[in-house]
Design brief:
By secondary structure, the protein is mostly helical. It contains 9 helices and no strands.
Length: 178
């Protein structure tokens, strides 16, 4: 005597469809082959068939219009909940996107500020190096006395190129122009 085969999980799921004749030819043949070789499978199908037949003897209950309306309203509530959930996700996504953009702008501003502070504003040492020519001639600048004196000298063309700084030339130029 051969080993008895049992119904597979897929075949068990299709038993009701088999009893109602709703399976395609290949699935029906598969279940019938299993039933032919397995007394346990035949017992399972027979018990399911009896239970199904007993359901036909129960009185039919008419759920009425109220049941239909409640069911439909609950389905609509589920659809509204889904729509609200979808809308909430869009709102949170939009807020997250706006926050990410602001964070990016803030990051660029901070990096730009640090760059400007480090590379464009001269350090104390750089300022001293830039001011060195002034400091080198500080004694001469203090001897001048005032800015008006330097302007008067410039007016007399003392600082023109080619002028060797001879005071007599500037006096001659000044008296000759009169």
């Amino acid at each position: 005597m051969g080993k008895a085969t049992r119904l597979t999980v897929e075949q068990r799921a299709n038993l009701v469809a088999y009893l109602d004749g709703e399976l395609d030819e290949a699935e029906t043949r598969s279940i019938e082959e299993t039933l032919a070789g397995s007394p346990a499978a035949r017992r399972d199908i027979e018990m399911l068939s009896r239970a199904w037949d007993l359901l036909d003897h129960l009185p039919r209950v008419d759920p009425g219009e109220e049941f239909t309306q409640r069911t439909v309203s609950r389905l609509r509530a589920v659809e509204v909940d889904k729509a609200q959930t979808s809308a909430q996700w869009r709102i949170w996504l939009r807020r997250g996107l706006v926050s990410a953009i602001w964070l990016g702008v803030l990051t660029v501003a901070v990096v730009g500020g640090v760059y400007a502070a480090v590379y464009t504003i001269p350090s104390e040492g750089q300022r001293k190096i830039q001011d060195f020519p002034v400091v080198e001639h500080l004694d001469q600048y203090e001897a001048v006395g005032s800015l008006e004196f330097l302007k008067e000298l410039k007016k007399n063309h003392l600082f023109d190129e080619g002028n060797n700084g001879d005071a007599s030339d500037s006096e001659n130029a000044a008296t000759g122009a009169r």
